[in-house]
Amino acid sequence: MAPHRIVIVGGGFAGLWATRALSKAPVEILLIDRANHHLFQPLLYQVATAGLSSPDIAAPLRHILRGQKNVEVRLASVERIEPAARRVVLDDGNVVGYDTLLLSTGATHAYFGHDSWAPHAPGLKTLDDALLLRRRLLLAFEHAEAETDAEKRRAWLNFAIVGGGPTGVELAGTLAEIARHTLKREFRHIDPASARVRLIEAGPRILSSFPESLSAKAQKQLERLGVEVVTGSPVEAIDGQGYRSGGVFVPARTVVWAAGVAASPLARSLGVELDRAGRVRVAPDLSVPGHPEIFIAGDLAALTQDGKPVPGVAPAAKQMGKHVAQSIRDRLAGRAPRPFRYRDFGNLATIGRMAAVVDLHGLHFSGLIAWWFWLAAHVFFLIGFRNRLVVLLNWAVAYWSYQRAARIIIGHKDDTSADEKDTEAG
Questions:
Q1: Is the dihedral of CA 141, 350, 161, 128 positive or negative?
Q2: What is the distance of C-alpha 10 from the center of its chain?
Q3: Beta strand 227-231 with 196-201: parallel, antiparallel or unpaired?
Q4: What is the pTM of this model?
Q5: Largest Cα span, the chain
Q6: What is the CATH number of domain 115-259?
Q7: Which of 142, 178, 237, 302 has the greatest count of CB atoms below 10 A from its CB?
Q8: Which pLDDT band holds residue 419 (cuts at 50, 70, 90)?
Q9: Which residues are catalytic?
């Protein structure tokens, strides 16, 4: 009798944690991902802001799973799912059958119906995004240095981060530090410290998932770093020259999108109910209603617990992946799967050097202690000893010198297309 065949689409937190949790199960696993690596997304902004290199926060899936004999890794993109036939159709035309399917393909950028903004305001979800954004940020200072027109120079030194969630806050704070400290005395015609960094949030406060007191402290820490925080002001338009908000056009040649996410479009091929963000409304055990052989985990799953949606964060994705693995083992043993229960361990966000906020079940703290807590947590959860060591060393050097290790511009200097992808050696 052939072993139970499991196809897992997506090698992120949910997919990888499910795969590893099935290491001793009598199953055959095919892990499909369009990238050859697992990415530690919480530190992706550090690659975008030249603090870390790509290999510091990513590891090849084949290397991670080299000792797990019941897994095959395939580098491919999935075009659609055919639930009735229990088939996964790849973009190269190949078809893969399954007994159980786990979809954990994550999320992409959402521009709220304004997809034309995407080329002018790139988001941050993949290493390709991070490398593109890093090039744009560093090139902005180079263009300003070469510009002789004062007004055009100011536009190059105006940076706008749209979205006041953790990613936007981290990007804004780090960019302000780069301008005021890292690039100090390196240019002859501009003062990088004159760069204007704005964090624009449509809602009434930044870090809306945190308690209001921590949001206020985060804003004060950002402002001390030189970031201008603008709340209650949605962006109305974005083009290659800047953005409009509150009816006023602001020249800014570098705009970064951190305002919204949408579920992977792959969910649409299932033919099941989706929520407004395109996520699958899953059953309590994370299976798809009407298709118990299909599970959804991570950002693609829409699930409410205690009246609140389970957040699209790394801890939730890991817990979902482990739960799906346990549900599969239960079914193979003839047991009914149990409902998923998310354990919320709290929220962390860093603002900049010696500045962060932490919310741990009613225990709130900010500043230096929160920053050390944030550092320790992120180093601990990185995959692999090498990555932990390199990140720790890079952070130590950056702390004492204000220097950022990956300030290398790769790609053509005039390339400003969001469709162009960058590559990085080493």
A1: positive
A2: 14
A3: parallel
A4: 0.90
A5: 75
A6: 3.50.50.100
A7: 178
A8: very low
A9: 170
